[in-house]
Structures are given as structure tokens and as C-alpha cells.
UniProtKB/TrEMBL annotation, chain A:
Species annotation: Pedobacter terrae
Keyword line: Cell outer membrane, Membrane, Signal, Transmembrane, Transmembrane beta strand, Transport
Superkingdom: Bacteria
Gene3D superfamilies for the chain: Carboxypeptidase-like, regulatory domain, TonB-dependent receptor, beta-barrel domain, TonB-dependent receptor, plug domain
Protein name as it appears in the record: TonB-linked outer membrane protein, SusC/RagA family
UniProt keyword annotation of Membrane present: yes
One of the record's GO cellular component terms: cell outer membrane
PROSITE patterns in UniProt: TONB_DEPENDENT_REC_3
Signal sequence interval, chain numbering: 1-23
Automatic annotation (TrEMBL), chain B:
Organism of derivation: Pedobacter terrae
Boundaries of every SusD-like N-terminal domain copy: 22-223
InterPro entries for this protein: SusD-like_N, SusD_RagB_dom, TPR-like_helical_dom_sf
Protein name per UniProt: SusD family protein
Keyword Signal assigned: yes
Length: 1069, 442
């Protein structure tokens, strides 16, 4: 390792020296209009078509550093480019440049990256969306992905119940069982590392590839869209630039009162009622000494005469005033604080450019004990050699992050599968940690302690645990890119790129010797026989869980690039290449008992013999938990691809692309066939035609594409696969294996076809413009289930046999409302995204439709909400009512449930928004600018939670308990059922899955506000730095309007995102 | 420079194309093994959750148990089976008695197909053992299925009676038809005879097949198709390898389990271990052993207290293939072939080990029909809950001399199952009735 570091440092030192050594000289000049002779502001001046660009000031003047033999280009929107050869003399030169207006050309050039090539957006026929650096930096976050929120149409973060964190859909979901997340490409190659490892400050721009024409170059992994991340690079002929950015984000505590729960008063009253009915007898007499709440313990003591009735009642009354959420807030929560620092250096000489950055993030979560820190380094160098015929570039990204997870989640504080009582207390008035009931009865534990038989303390004190566990994971991520590009002949380049990526992470979870987990496990296994020394099969000391995972990615690509102009009007851009990719993961985990962190030693245990539980020896078949495990995964791809674009007179473009993917994940037959995924596209810039004369619409371009991209389900295998049981058969002690997958030589990628129509336009002097697109998608060969006769040995078969279709409209528009000193512009994002399952071979069951949002049903969207039809509460007793098969209203829940078929279920609607988007208003005045983002999501539904009475009158359940029906007439004000006379699980299931609890999700949200104050040396000569920006950013501000009357935020049903406020500074030196 | 790039580029292209196959053959997940080695196949065959399990609905449908209280509380499948209902399965989609043997067949086929791609010379002993084992377990599963889901084997009509779907390959996309019983048993006996040659005389664990178990099973198969000559010969061959019997006088009837554990290698009588599918039926408080059966054990017969737990009457004997069955097969075949002396010898040898010492009175010179009836009675008493009774009923009912009518009572109504009734054949599960597979008449 150290050797590599030395090498890198050496390389770095060499490059900086080298770049300074090249000859450079300063050029000054002035740009004026050829027609009016007036100076032109903001003309871009560049040398050798490099990426170093300076702009003219309000007097049309500029200064640029150039090397000898350069070609200087001056360009400005609305004017024809002007080029001039620089004289090979070291003296300063002064130029006067006259620009010829171009009435037809008014567009700004945006360069998009597909990962295989960079092309101007004007030359792309497909659906690309570009998120530039400015938009990326509008938001403040530790990760990069969340900055895509509300940035491009068609892209949505999914928030339905059960959605994974950062689950993204681009143009809806086009798969049922396979991977549903877009492919992330970082610096030209797929990134399979942890996306949180990427420092947003290193990212220059992001391109989203949406349709087949844009994405099919990525072939079998492009079906969910592609997110191409490009990191910052240095620029040729640019003096050293240093940027520093730092911000501090403070967030509120989690709102624990968001989901209402039964109050302590109701809880205690219900416990009393249950106690009187003997509900706790089973628990009280259980051989496993099931834990009981303090109130039940008091009730038992009162019944047994161990405490006076009045004293018991007095103590019980006291509990009614407690709310454990208050303790949780004061002892286990805090305001979150995120700090971010980033420093970067960039610049370049005539032949060499570099980019160097370092970033540090430290986040203290609002849960005490949970922290995150990240250190990133980025080092990029590139050289132009042999008369610019050979380009060599290297780039090294290094990330080290550490996550600490020591918080005690409130959901983890249960009593053997029952929730924690709401009147628990974590500390007494003096702040001394108190114990709460956990695995065994408090009385029993105390009795054992009094007996002094040598067991470890068996009390659980949550506050003490905070310091007794050390759970963290550490991740190291390297990404090394090297690229060589050689100009073979004028029109033809060959390039070779190699990327090596390695992520290694380790997770340590140390349960200290004094932690409850350790004490409890040791005690449970302890053997005490009278007259014999105490025996501990699990030795004293801590318990250390360790796991590590290392993933290694190797990518190698060879590509030919052809660019030529034939005659005046024809030009051809083509590329073809081949790439191989190997992705390998190795994971290990183990556990050490009796761990002594002082000396890093452990003790051996006997994993083979079974032991009796100390508390209830009836349970006599307990093995000491063994966590040894190892995993090895490999993905391999071999791909051939090509892309072609023909341009006629800069007006009409015809493009085509194709790709053949072969992988060790596919079946042999599929690999042999080598079916390509392909696309075709075309665009026509109508406004360039001679007949075009709409002056109010100076720019108009239409595009159309069609093609295929693919998707992969990694859980399937083309081969007969079996799983070895890690651990031998109990009787024979032989290893044994299970068949988990029948062979499927035809297994292949899913295919998604997309038809895309787009129109790009600018109106009224570019005061209004944007693009509107329509698409239709069809997913075929999707992985789905088919029922098989069981005599084949399997009951159902997962193969390429389901279909889905979708279509949508996306608009990305802007208006420039005011353009004077006070500037006001607005960006509008609008998306309509619809989908429908068109073919699925297995019918879903009622319980699946009611449990999983994505149970496929032909003719319905993939994510949908279904419910039982609701016939209101019975006015006489508050029972919920449903319908039987004959249409009659019934409270016989077993019958209602049994007679409801999948087709009888009410289909409420989509579980994911049909319409969504955002409106971003940007205002600037003098040095201030303000940006306010309002987002909306419409046309979907969600199921809220409510009280579940269970067998204990809803003890500890949802706070809707307060709203329940209690007497006739209440049905006018509430739909929450009464407490059932006898426990009835069917009644609960019916109510909780009834349409009564389904709510509209439509809402409009004030997402965030960014306010910044900018100072520039151009404005204030005295400013000691080039640019200075101070900014404030407030995020997750709240809902402005919602359709549902419920207080639940439809997108954050379980818990609200805390509001955050950031303050930051950005300095360019 | 340019040349170097061209050469590098071209050679890379060639390299990619050249190593394509090896590169793509890499297994995606090491734990998800693609079974290819002998050890892999052995591990599959050692999965005794899949193997070493036999159907048990036939035990419920037979005459060993009596249900009281009209079957209240029994699960629908088990109750329907016991009362020979017209629609046994109703809406049930997974019938374990069907699914488990077919899973065994699927595993065996994967092993057999995989063996075809391995060079036997790598390890001939292990190779043969695995091949023999796979052939045995597949035949065992086919046989078990046929006892429930195909009509009884009758030598006269076997070539026209539909058998069961008989996949002999691991490709799940192929759809073999039902074939006929003659084909089925021809396949079974041929496969088993190959297995006999490949398997070791005895196995390391009773969960694994052996020559001994295979020969015993061949005797059972031939008895089922009423080929008594072959049944006799294979019983002889089996006993030539191992003729051990437990002497119940050496067992403690008061112990929690008086019998030595079959696994891994305890019970010297058992040649192949296979458990019955565990239905709640046999543990239900309303299900008792038929009193005709329990009363048939006479004074001095140790089996009554050994087999039936005195406190609750539940069964606790051993299952699978054991030597007591082989003795009874040899005795019955010998008797039917007229070798009465031999038959008596086997019967007496077995029963001496089952009766309290000096209480058993050996038979001597019994007339053929009486001797046969006695052997069949002892067969019923000895092989309790082995899953053999149903097959015996189907076979013996074909001869009026040994035919019986089964009877149930529900809500005071008698339900009868006449000899050779259609309900001696279980319907195929509803999930199977596609691709031209026809339902059994019922």
C-alpha cells in the first residue's frame, strides 16, 4: 500500500513541475461586433479548442494565457465563430477581433456525456437530460444522488411504503423481478461501489440517458436508464485555480410523535383490564420467564398481597405521567450536524492539465451514537503529446469513509416480540440510567442476583448500552482510470481505457463484555450445578462480530472513433469498440467470543454441542451462534458496441447504435446467439431550413428515436444451481445441498423498447424555451413466474415470460420573466409516467395484492393499492363491515375474507405518482440570488396504518385508538372500529386492509430554498479573492397542500425527514 | 507509435474473442454451485430432507387407523383422504405426497445427467456409488408414486393401464406422458438391477442406498407386480448380504424409544431409511389404531408394546426398508411357489425374534392356503405404518381369496371401499392436468 502512495505522490510532484515548465505567454484583446463596432460582452475565448475558456468583460476585453503555435477561437451566441493563429513569439500580443452576427444560431452549447463519447446536445437525437454544475450545487448534501431530486423530468425518487432508500425510477419501472435501479456510470465505466463514496464537490455534471437511443449503447444494463457522472477535470492553458467550499447543516430531531400511539393512560388502563381477565397468566407462569411490564408486576404483587393495594395503585398512577418518547428525545436524540469541507486545485499548461481535490465530511446523525465521516482525494492528470496526437490521462479517486451505528433504536427496545411499554423511563431524576424489562421477568432477574449464584448482571439499561457497543464500518474505495488516445490518421482515433476499482469495507460490531447482549448470551448458556464450579460455555469477555467485503472491478475498453466531414454538408461520426468487465466480490464474516479488545484476543467455543437454556432447561437444543461465513460473487461481461451519427448540413441527423452483451449471468444459448440491442434515431432542426421564417420561434428542432435496451436479473442463473448448506447434516454429519434453480439455457436479459418523440424550442428572444418529449415503452421477456406441473420437479419457473408497457410525457421548460437588474426566471419540470402489466403468467392471491404493492396483475399498473370494500361501521356496536360474495353487508370477517376473490378487491389506484414535477423560481438582484423549489406529486394512493386490536384490546397500538367508536352515534364522526368484545384477528386484517384506510397521496411540497450572496473581483477590485459566495439553504420545508385529510405525509409515512438548514461559504482564489 | 497502437488494438480484439468462452464460464456465485463434481452430486443425494421421505396419504386411506368423532378438527386433505372423498384436494395446490417424490426424481435426474459429463475414471468407486444411488432413489420415488397415483398393477392389464408422468431427464421444459404400468415397472426393475451392480454391499449411513437395500427393494417391487419367482430370488440375494433381525427380547419396551436409532447406523435390520411424510393425522387425539389390528397380537407377542406407546397408542417403530419385510416377502413368495417348508422356516425365524422367548409356537406343516393367510396376517402385524399396507390391499384384493372391503363410519353412515374400487387410486393433483395429462377415474 505504502508503495502505491509513494508512487502517486511522486507522479503528482512530477506533473506539477512539468506543467509549470512549458512555455506560456499572455494575450490580451478586445472583441467587437463587425456590424455595430460595439464591444461584445461574455464572448468565450479559447485556445486550441481546449476546455480553458475566458470571457470578455463589459468592454469586450479579455486576457488569456497561451502556448506557442496555438489557434485562438472566439465564440458567442448569435455570432459566427472567429479563429486566428497565434504567432510563435514570446512577446505579449494584442488582438482586435470582429465577430459576424449569425441570425440563425442562438443556442448555447451543452456537452453531454454518454460514457463512450461526449457530444453537443444539439447533435444528439435521443433523450438526454443534463444536470450542470450550477444545478448540482443548488442543493447541499453529503451524497451526489439526492441532488438529482427535482432536477430532471422523468426521474423520481420512490417513497411508497417499503421502498428502499434512494430508490430511483427513470420513466417508470420496466421490470417486475429484476434490478429496478438505473445504471450509474462514473467516469466512463459502470460504478458498482457505494454511491455515497462519491464526493459531490468532485462532480462536474451528470447526464441522464432516458430513451433507447441514449441508453442502448449501454446494452443489457440500460433498461432502467443510465446516470452518467462526470468528475471535474483540469483545463489546458489555465493558471492554477483554487476553490474552497464549506458548509454546515443543522437538522431537527426526528419527530417521534409523528405516528400517534396509544397514550400511557390508555395503555395502563388496558393492562389493568387484561390483567383482571387473566390475560397475563400464561406469561406469568411461563417456564421461559417472559418479561412483564412494571404495571403488570405491580398488579401481580397487589394480587399476591406483597404490596398494599393503595401503594400499588399509587405507583401505577405515577406511570401514567410518563411518555418514553420524551426520554428518547432527551437522552437518545440530538440535532443533526453535517459538516462539509472541500478544496480543489486545477489548472494546466499547454500540454498538461490537472485537477486535485480533497474533501472531508463529518455528519453527526440525530440519533446519538450514529456518525458518518468521509475523506476523499481526487487526482487527475492528462497530457497531450506528439503534436497533440497522443493524449494520456490518469485519474485516481480515493475515498475513506466510516460509519458508526451505536444508536439504540426505539424499535429495538421491545419485550420478547412485544413493543416497549410507553411509560418506560430511561433515567431517574438524577440522570442515573434505569433498567427496563427486556428478555426475562424483572423479579426473576432480581431473585437470581440476590441468590448470588454467579450469574452476570441481567438488567438492561438502555442509556448504559450507548457506550458499551462499538459498531462501525470502514470503507476504502479506490478508482483508478487510465486512458490513452492516439490519432491514427486525421479522421480516426483509437483509444484504450482501463479502469480498476476496489472497494473494501469492514464492519465491526463489538458487544463489550459489559453490554447487555453479551451478558444475556453468556447467562443463557451458563451451567450451574450444585456443588460444581460454574460453567460458562460462552466465555467471559466481549463478543466481536466482524465482516468484510471487498469488491474489485476491472474494465478494459478499446474503441475506434471516426469523425469526418465530406464536402460542405455531410459529416459522419462513428465509434466502435469492445469492452470486457469483471466484477468480483469476496465477503467474509466471523465472530469472536470472549473478546478482549485490550489485547485483541478471543477464546474458543464449542459450536457443535447443544446446550440447555439456563432459564428454562426444557429448551435443550441451543447451539452457540456461529457467524462464520464466506461469499464469492463474480459478474463478467464481454460487449461489442458501435454508434453512428450522420449529419446533413447541421440540420438533419440520423443516428444508430448497437450493442452485443455476453455475460456469465446469461444462458449458454443466449450468449451464443449474441442478439444485439440496438437503436435508431433522427432529428431535424426545422429552424435552419431556408423556408423557415417564424421569427417568434427562432429555434425549433424535432427528434424521434426507437430502439431497445436491456435489464438483468442477477438472482437467476442459467445453470442448474444448488446451494450447499453451510453446516453439516445433523445425523450423518455430511454436507448436503439443495437445488435452488433449474437449468435455463434460454435465460437472457429483459428487453425494453422505447419510442421517443421530442421537440426542442426557443421563443420570443429566448425568453421561453425548453423541450417536450413523449415516449412509449414496452418491456418484453421480463422475468416472471410461470406455473409448472410439479412432476417436472419444480412448482413454478422463473423465466423471460412477462410483459409490461408504459408511456409518458415529459416537459422541461424555462421562462425568463424579468431580465433587468432584477432578474427572475422559472424552470418547470413536468412528468406524466404511466405503466401497465400486459402479460403475467401467475395470478396473484388476495393476500399478496393486499400485502405487496408490486403484485402484478394484467391490465393494472405494477405498483398498485388494493383493498377490501368498506361498508362502514355498524351503528349498534362499531364493528367494521364488509361485503359477502352475494353483495350483502356482513361483520362475519372470516366469511368476508374467504369470499373476497382477487377480482372482488377494490382497486384504489397507483401506489406511485402518475404526475410529478417541480417549479423552481430563481430571482437575483445585485449580489443576491434566491431559488425556491416547489415540487408536486399527483395521482396516487397510499395505505395508512391504524389501530390493531389483536388479542389485547389494541395495547400499545396506533393512536387511532383515541378516535375509536365508543357509543352509538360515534359512527358519524369516526371510522375507527370499536374495541372488539372478543379478540378477532380477521376483524383486524379486514379493517387494516379496507379501503377506509386508503388515502390519496397527491400533494404539493415546498422542498427547499437557496439564498446566496455573491461577490466577484470583477465587481469589487479590492476583493482579495476571485469569487466569494455565502449561502443559506433550507431543505424539507414541508407540505403546502395535500389531498388527504390525514396528517400523514404521503411520501414519508413511517417517519418525516427532519428539516435542515445549511450555511456555507465558497471561495475561488 | 501508430503501429504499436494498431497492433495493440487488433490483438486486444483477438484476445477478447479468443477467451470468450472461458471468460464467460465463470460461476456468478460460488455458494450457488453448479453441480458438476462427484462431491456435488453426493451432497445433493445426501439431502435427507428431500430424500429418505415416503408418501403417507396411503397410510391414512388404509385400514390401519380409525378416526373417531367424525374427524372433527382434522385438516381437510387428511379428513378427505381418510373418508375416501370424491374431491380429496379441493383447492389445495401443493400435494406433498406427489411433490416430494417428484423432487427426488428431479434431483436424481440432475445427478444422472451430470454424471454423463464426468469421466468415470476419475474415481470409479465414487462414480458408481453415486450413479447407483441416483438410480435407486429415482426408482424408489417412481414406485412410491405408482402406489398412490396409478391403478393397481395387474399382470393382465399392465400394458394398458396408465402409469404416472415419468421424467428421465432434468430438463424441466420436457413433458413426458403417463406411459403404462408395464413400461414403468420395466424401467424400475432395469434401473434397479443396474444399481445393484454399482452400489456397495452396505452403505456408510442408512440414509444412503446399498446393494442390500436395493435387492430388498427389488424383492418388494416384484412382489407388487405379483412376480413371485423374482420376488423370492431377490429376497434370497438380499438376505445373502445381510440376514440380521433384531431380537425384541433384547429391547426395553419401557424405554422412550425401545428401538435403536436407525440413523446414522444403529438399527441392524434396516437397510434403507425413509420416513413417512409427517401428517398431523397420526398424532391427532381422535385418531387411533384399528382395534382389529391391535387386538391381533396374542399373548407373548412383544410387538404390541413395542410398536404402540402404551400411554397414547401412537406408533414408534422404524420405517424404510428392513429385513423383517424381506423375510416376509421370501416367505410369501415361497409359499405361493409351493416351497412351503422354506416359507414356514422364514415365518418362524422372524416370529421367534418377535415373541417373548419360549412363548412362540412354530408352525409346522401348514396347508398352503392357511400358511399364506398366516403369512399375510403376520405381514400386516409386522409392517405397521411402513406405507406397505395400501399396496398390499391393492394387490391382495385382486384375488377373491384375500380380498377385503374397508369400512368407515361418519355421522352414523357407513362408507365402504370395495375391493378394486376406483378409490384405491388417488387423483392426480389439479396442478398436473395440463399438457395432455389425464385425470384418474374416481
Amino acid at each position: 500500500m505504502k508503495k502505491y502512495l509513494n508512487l502517486i505522490l511522486l507522479q503528482l510532484a512530477f506533473f506539477i513541475i512539468a506543467s509549470v515548465a512549458f512555455a506560456q505567454f499572455k494575450i490580451t484583446g478586445k472583441v467587437v461586433s463587425n456590424v455595430s463596432n460595439l464591444p461584445i460582452e461574455k464572448v468565450s475565448i479559447s485556445i486550441n479548442e481546449s476546455t480553458q475558456i475566458v470571457q470578455t468583460d463589459s468592454e469586450g476585453k479579455f486576457t488569456i494565457i497561451a502556448a506557442t503555435n496555438g489557434i485562438l477561437t472566439a465564440s458567442h451566441v448569435g455570432y459566427l465563430d472567429y479563429t486566428v493563429s497565434l504567432k510563435a513569439e514570446p512577446n505579449a500580443q494584442t488582438l482586435l477581433i470582429r465577430l459576424q452576427p449569425n441570425t440563425q444560431q442562438l443556442s448555447e452549447v451543452t456537452v453531454i456525456s454518454t460514457g463512450y463519447q461526449k457530444i453537443p446536445k444539439e447533435r444528439a437525437t435521443g433523450s438526454f437530460a443534463q444536470v450542470d454544475n450550477k444545478l448540482l450545487n443548488r442543493r447541499i448534501s453529503t451524497d451526489i444522488l439526492s441532488r438529482l431530486n427535482d432536477a430532471v423530468p422523468g426521474l423520481i425518487f420512490n417513497h411508497e411504503s417499503g421502498a428502499r432508500a434512494n430508490s430511483i425510477s427513470i420513466r417508470g419501472q420496466n421490470t417486475i423481478n429484476a434490478n429496478d435501479q438505473p445504471l450509474i456510470v462514473l467516469d466512463n465505466f459502470p460504478y458498482d461501489g457505494d454511491i455515497t463514496n462519491i464526493n459531490p464537490n468532485d462532480v462536474e455534471s451528470i447526464t441522464i440517458l432516458k430513451d433507447a437511443s441514449a441508453a442502448s449503447i449501454w446494452g443489457a444494463r440500460a433498461g432502467n436508464g443510465v446516470i452518467v457522472i462526470t468528475t471535474k477535470k483540469g483545463l489546458l492553458n489555465q493558471p492554477l485555480q483554487i476553490s474552497f467550499n464549506s458548509n454546515l447543516t443543522i437538522g431537527t430531531k426526528l419527530d417521534l410523535y409523528y405516528t400517534p400511539i396509544m397514550s400511557s393512560v390508555d395503555y395502563i388502563e388496558t393492562e389493568k383490564k387484561l390483567f383482571a381477565q387473566g390475560y397475563y397468566t400464561t406469561l406469568e407462569t411461563s417456564v421461559s420467564k417472559q418479561p412483564l411490564t412494571p404495571v403488570v408486576e405491580l398488579l401481580i404483587a397487589k394480587r399476591d398481597g406483597k404490596i398494599s393495594a393503595s401503594e400499588a395503585d399509587r405507583q401505577i398512577e405515577q406511570f401514567k405521567d410518563f411518555d418514553v418518547r420524551n426520554d428518547y428525545n432527551s437522552y437518545l436524540q440530538r440535532r443533526s450536524i453535517n459538516q462539509q469541507y472541500s478544496l480543489n486545485l486545477k489548472g494546466g499548461g499547454q500540454f498538461h492539465r490537472y485537477y486535485l481535490s480533497s474533501g472531508y465530511d463529518k455528519n453527526l446523525s440525530n440519533l446519538i451514537g450514529n456518525d458518518f465521516s468521509r475523506l476523499t482525494f481526487n487526482l487527475g492528470n492528462s497530457f497531450s503529446l506528439i503534436n497533440n496526437k497522443l493524449d494520456i490521462a490518469t485519474n485516481v479517486l480515493y475515498t475513506n469513509s466510516r460509519t458508526d451505528q451505536n444508536s439504540i433504536g426505539i424499535s429495538n427496545l421491545g419485550l420478547q416480540g412485544r413493543d416497549l411499554y410507553p411509560y418506560a423511563k430511561f433515567a431517574d431524576a438524577n440522570g442515573t440510567p434505569l433498567s427496563i424489562a427486556r428478555n426475562y421477568r424483572t423479579n426473576y432477574i432480581n431473585e437470581l442476583a440476590n441468590n448470588g449464584i454467579g450469574l452476570l448482571d441481567w438488567n438492561y439499561r438502555p442509556l448504559q448500552e450507548l457506550n458499551l457497543s462499538d459498531n462501525f464500518s470502514n470503507s476504502f474505495d479506490y478508482l483508478i482510470n487510465t486512458e490513452a488516445r492516439y490519432n491514427l490518421i486525421k479522421e480516426l482515433d483509437i483509444s484504450m481505457q482501463y479502469q480498476y476499482g476496489k472497494t473494501s469495507s469492514k464492519t465491526e460490531n463489538l458487544n463489550n463484555a459489559d453490554s447487555y447482549y453479551t451478558r444475556n448470551l453468556i447467562n443463557e448458556f451458563t451451567i450451574i450445578n450444585p456443588g460444581m464450579p460454574i460453567e460458562r460455555p460462552i466465555p467471559l469477555g466481549g463478543i466481536l462480530n466482524y465482516s468484510d467485503q471487498s469488491s474489485i472491478r476491472n474494465n478494459l475498453r478499446t474503441q475506434l472513433n471516426f469523425n469526418d466531414k465530406f464536402g460542405e454538408k455531410h459529416s459522419l461520426n462513428a465509434l466502435a469498440g469492445v469492452e470486457i468487465r469483471d466484477f468480483n466480490i469476496i465477503g467474509n464474516s466471523y465472530r469472536i467470543y470472549g473478546y478482549d479488545s485490550e489485547h485483541a484476543t478471543g477464546k474458543a467455543v464449542d459450536y457443535v454441542h447443544a446446550y440447555s437454556n439456563f432459564v428454562y432447561p426444557q429448551s435443550n437444543n441451543n447451539l452457540i451462534p456461529n457467524r462464520d461465513n464466506r461469499q464469492e460473487l463474480t459478474d463478467r461481461y464481454l460487449s461489442y458496441y458501435s454508434n453512428l451519427a450522420y449529419t446533413f448540413d447541421d440540420r438533419i441527423i440520423i443516428s444508430a447504435s448497437g450493442r452485443i452483451d455476453k455475460s456469465n449471468l446469461f444462458g449458454v444459448n443466449s450468449n451464443q446467439k449474441g442478439v444485439p440491442l440496438w437503436s435508431m434515431g433522427s432529428s431535424w432542426e426545422i429552424s435552419k431550413e431556408s423556408f423557415y421564417n417564424l421569427t417568434w420561434l427562432p429555434y425549433l428542432r424535432i427528434r424521434a428515436t426507437y430502439g431497445y435496451s436491456g435489464n438483468i436479473d442477477k438472482t437467476l442463473s442459467a445453470y442448474t444451481t444448488a446451494m450447499y448448506y453451510n453446516g453439516n447434516d445433523i445425523v450423518t454429519k455430511q454436507p448436503y445441498a439443495n437445488i435452488i434453480n433449474p437449468p435455463n439455457p434460454e435465460l437472457r436479459w429483459e428487453r425494453i423498447s422505447t419510442t421517443n418523440f421530442g421537440v426542442d424550442f426557443k421563443l420570443f428572444d429566448n425568453r421561453f424555451g425548453g423541450s417536450i418529449e413523449y415516449y412509449a415503452k414496452k418491456g418484453t421477456d421480463l422475468i416472471g413466474e410461470t406455473a409448472f406441473p410439479h412432476y417436472t420437479g419444480i412448482t413454478s419457473f422463473r423465466g423471460n415470460n412477462a410483459d409490461i408497457k408504459g408511456n409518458g410525457i415529459e416537459a422541461n421548460l424555462y421562462t425568463k420573466n424579468l431580465n433587468g437588474v432584477f432578474k427572475w426566471s422559472t424552470d418547470y419540470l413536468f412528468t406524466y409516467a404511466s405503466d401497465e402489466v400486459t402479460n403475467y403468467k401467475v395470478d396473484g392471491t388476495v393476500s399478496k395484492f393486499l400485502t405487496y404493492l408490486n403484485t402484478p396483475q394484467v391490465g393494472r399498473p405494477l405498483y398498485a393499492i388494493y383493498s377490501y370494500n368498506w361498508a362502514g361501521l355498524d351503528p349498534s356496536n362499531g364493528n367494521p363491515q364488509g361485503y359477502l360474495a352475494d353483495g350483502s353487508i356482513s361483520s362475519d370477517y372470516a366469511k368476508v375474507i374467504a369470499q373476497t376473490t382477487a377480482s372482488d378487491l377494490k382497486y384504489n389506484g397507483r401506489a406511485r405518482p402518475l404526475f410529478f414535477g417541480a417549479m423552481r423560481n430563481n430571482v437575483s438582484w445585485n449580489n443576491f440570488s434566491l431559488s425556491v423549489n416547489i415540487s408536486y406529486r399527483l395521482g396516487y394512493y397510499f395505505r395508512r396504518y391504524s389501530v390493531q386490536y389483536g388479542d389485547n384490546y389494541g395495547l400499545g397500538s396506533h393512536g387511532d385508538y383515541d378516535l375509536r367508536w365508543q357509543q352509538p352515534g360515534d359512527e358519524q364522526r369516526t371510522q375507527v372500529p370499536s374495541i372488539p368484545l372478543t379478540p378477532n384477528t380477521n376483524r383486524d386484517s379486514f379493517y387494516l386492509r379496507s379501503e377506509n384506510l386508503v388515502e390519496k397521496g397527491d400533494h404539493i411540497r415546498l422542498q427547499d430554498i437557496n439564498l446566496s450572496y455573491n461577490l466577484s473581483k470583477l465587481g469589487i477590485a479590492k476583493l482579495p479573492v476571485r469569487n466569494l459566495q455565502l449561502y443559506l439553504y433550507a431543505n424539507n420545508l414541508g407540505i403546502l397542500w395535500k389531498a388527504s385529510k390525514s396528517r400523514i405525509d404521503p411520501d414519508f409515512q413511517a417517519s418525516l425527514l427532519p428539516r435542515t438548514l445549511s450555511i456555507g461559504v465558497k471561495i475561488d482564489f | 507509435m501508430r503501429k504499436i497502437f494498431i497492433i495493440m488494438g487488433v490483438s486486444l480484439f483477438i484476445l477478447f474473442a479468443g477467451c470468450e468462452k472461458d471468460f464467460l464460464d465463470k460461476k456468478p456465485n460460488k455458494a450457488l454451485l453448479v453441480p458438476t463434481t462427484l462431491n456435488d452430486f453426493q451432497a445433493l443425494l445426501d439431502n435427507n430432507i428431500v430424500f429418505n421421505v415416503s408418501p403417507a396419504l396411503n397410510i391414512i386411506a388404509g385400514d390401519e387407523y380409525t378416526v373417531t368423532n367424525n374427524g372433527a378438527g382434522l385438516n381437510a386433505l387428511q379428513s378427505n383422504t381418510y373418508y375416501w372423498a370424491d374431491d380429496i384436494y379441493q383447492a389445495a395446490t401443493a400435494i406433498t405426497d406427489w411433490d416430494i417424490p417428484y423432487k427426488q426424481i428431479f434431483y436424481a435426474n440432475i445427478v444422472l445427467d451430470g454424471l454423463g459429463k464426468i469421466d468415470r475414471n476419475i474415481n470409479p468407486v465414487q462414480y458408481d456409488n453415486i450413479k447407483g444411488s441416483a438410480l435407486f432413489v429415482r426408482s424408489f420415488a417412481f414406485y412410491n408414486l405408482a402406489q398412490l397415483f396409478a391403478q393397481p398393477y395387474s399382470p393382465a392389464s399392465a400394458n394398458t393401464t396408465p402409469a404416472i408422468p415419468m421424467p428421465l431427464f432434468s430438463d424441466v421444459n420436457k413433458r413426458p406422458g403417463r406411459g403404462n404400468l408395464q413400461q414403468l415397472y420395466a424401467q424400475l426393475s432395469a434401473d434397479l438391477k443396474i444399481a445393484v451392480e454399482l452400489l456397495p454391499a452396505t452403505s456408510q449411513f442408512k440414509t444412503r442406498p446399498s446393494k442390500w437395500g436395493c435387492l430388498s427393494f427389488l424383492a418388494r417391487v416384484y412382489l407388487t407386480i405379483q412376480d413371485y419367482q423374482n420376488a423370492f430370488e431377490f429376497a434370497e440375494k438380499s438376505l445373502a448380504i445381510n440376514k440380521d433381525l433384531l431380537d425384541y427380547n433384547n429391547l426395553d419396551a419401557n424405554a422412550a424409544n425401545p428401538f435403536p436409532n436407525t440413523l446414522p447406523n444403529g438399527n441392524l435390520e434396516v437397510s434403507y431409511h425413509s420416513e413417512n411424510i409427517s401428517y398431523a393425522f397420526v398424532r391427532s387425539a381422535i385418531v387411533k389404531f384399528n382395534t382389529d389390528l391391535t387386538n391381533s397380537y396374542v399373548q407373548g407377542d412383544l410387538r404390541k408394546n413395542m410398536f404402540f406407546i402404551p400411554s397414547n397408542g401412537r406408533f414408534r417403530g422404524y420405517v424404510g426398508i428392513a429385513n423383517d419385510e424381506v423375510y416376509l416377502i421370501r416367505a410369501e413368495s415361497a409359499c405361493r411357489l409351493g416351497k412351503l417348508e422354506l416359507a414356514e422356516q422364514d415365518l418362524n425365524f422372524l416370529l421367534t425374534k418377535r415373541y417373548k422367548t419360549n412363548t412362540y409356537v412354530p408352525t409346522n406343516g401348514m396347508e398352503q392356503t392357511d400358511l399364506l393367510k398366516r403369512i399375510l396376517l403376520e405381514r400386516k402385524k409386522e409392517l405397521v405404518a411402513r406405507g406397505l399396507r395400501w399396496t398390499d390391499l391393492r394387490r391382495l384384493n385382486q384375488d377373491p381369496l384375500t380380498a377385503i372391503t374397508l369400512q368407515r363410519k361418519r355421522d352414523q353412515v357407513d362408507i365402504l371401499l370395495a375391493p378394486n374400487g376406483l378409490k384405491y387410486t388417488f387423483p392426480l393433483p389439479n396442478t398436473e392436468l395440463m399438457d395432455g395429462i389425464e385425470q384418474n377415474p374416481r
